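Below sits our specimen:

——
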Amino acid sequence: MSDPSSTEPSSTPEHPTGSGHPSSPDSPPQPPEVTGEATPAADPLTQALADVAILQAKVTELQDQYIRGQAEVQNARRRADEEVSKARKFAVESFADSMLPVVDSLEAGLATQEATPEQIREGAEATLRQLKSALERNKVLAINPTAGTKFDPHQHQAISMVPAEQEANTIVSVLQKGYLIADRVLRPALVTVTAPQ
């Protein structure tokens, strides 16, 4: 016969949670256990501090870029000022260099003790050609209008008006040449013009 005290599997169901406490349908739900690990969304202060650190780094970077930019502007301005100063100081360097052969020719002509009038004239003409060539290389061009040219008040200065057969307000003769330098009037030509009829 079987022993009623023998061990048989209990027909009483155990609690599924394994806590050893029977669950009651009327008991309230238990809160989750706190493990001590905070989720990222649960700490806005840490996130805000991280954002502030990022912004401070960006501000520092922008300040550094601004300081470098200002230094570059100052250097560029200083270099430009130096270039302008040099340009003003040596503006006539090219022109002076063009004049040196003319000076040499004049000195050589004056050093000749027994030159004939013909030789003096030839030397003067050669020196004048040198001088005109030097002026042209430096953009200095003569204003020498021919008779009958329309009077231009921007390039000509009328000294007198004379009656003539040609059209009124035209140039009769040039008393003194004028000169242009790089399309700017350096000196107007002195001319006589025809009087209105």
Observations:
- Residues 44-89 form the longest helix (46 residues).
- Residues 78 and 110 are 48 Å apart (CA to CA).
